[in-house]
Design brief:
Length: 289
């Protein structure tokens, strides 16, 4: 008999899906600009809705499929006298950061990172039988859990991500140069997540990577479609929103906890990104709007 240890196994027993259901809203309905660290999926089953994703207005109708990437500012609206019904999924990216879609002696890239590099904030297409079956399977298993539902859901989500990746990467194969750039961007994203509570200097990140600040800035903007400084601000506001949703911390303390010592600067930055004051936003999420 061959013995093995837990380190020989890749654990997919913890469910990556944090929400999956059928939702319906009648207009007028607006969930204002917001951000979160999860992937978000919509499959419109009836009616129409409108989204603004990173400043771009998107009209969605029956049988549209939309995947919104993590840390992307977006809003959702159903106009007056309209109604929209949709399957809705949230899933966290961490598990899929450990699934490699390409590995060679020169480089490797994860499923999560591959999608981040190939998609510009979101992906949208008319639904088909593959997408419909995957989305309904994820929601169905999530809503009716059993002993192995977490594993089933994760495998369905991985299939969904791979399907989207196949659609968006046809004209841009993964190469060693992409791997090097991926390593720079991945390190930068990790650095921000680990240091957002303190002062972040972009030259410090570039120094750690042994590249110039200018090159890092250009690389980040090209791959993420926003500047590194803007990403840092969005990430901090995202953390603030999570604290607003899960704690009763005063806004002054929330500002401090995300690395902003000036509460007025926090309020201005929050309004610039979300188009709403922190106080008003907190009231909105408390009402469940």
């Amino acid at each position: 008999m061959v013995s093995s240890t837990s380190s020989d196994y890749f654990d997919i027993s913890a469910c990556a899906v944090s929400g999956g259901c059928l939702q319906s809203h009648s207009g007028p309905y607006l969930f204002g600009r917001h951000i979160h660290t999860s992937f978000e999926v919509y499959l419109i089953t009836q009616g129409n809705c409108f989204m603004n994703i990173n400043g771009k207005d998107i009209s969605c109708k029956k049988d549209d499929f939309i995947m919104i990437l993590p840390n992307t500012v977006h809003s959702f609206e159903v106009k007056e006298n309209e109604q929209c019904e949709f399957l809705h999924i949230h899933f966290e990216p961490e598990l899929f950061a450990h699934i490699l879609v390409k590995k060679t002696p020169e480089f490797s890239i994860s499923l999560s990172d591959a999608l981040l590099f190939h998609c510009d904030f979101y992906y949208k297409q008319p639904s088909n039988i593959t997408l419909f079956n995957l989305v309904t399977s994820i929601v169905g298993v999530y809503q009716n859990p059993n002993s192995y539902s977490a594993i089933s859901t994760n495998l369905y989500v991985a299939q969904l991500m791979l399907y989207v990746l196949e659609q968006v990467s046809k004209d841009e194969p993964l190469t060693p140069s992409v791997h090097v750039q991926n390593r720079y961007i991945s390190y930068t994203l990790q650095y921000v997540s680990e240091h957002f509570q303190e002062k972040i200097l972009i030259p410090d990140i570039a120094k750690e990577l042994n590249i110039s600040t200018r090159y890092l800035g250009k690389l980040f903007s090209r791959h993420m479609n926003l500047t590194l400084a803007n990403y840092i601000n969005i990430y901090r506001i995202n953390q603030a929103i999570q604290l607003m949703s899960s704690t009763d911390m005063p806004l002054v303390d929330i500002a401090l906890s995300i690395g902003l010592n000036d509460s007025q600067h926090f309020s201005r930055l929050f309004y610039k990104i979300i188009n709403m004051t922190p106080g008003k936003y907190r009231k909105m999420i408390q009402k469940g709007e």
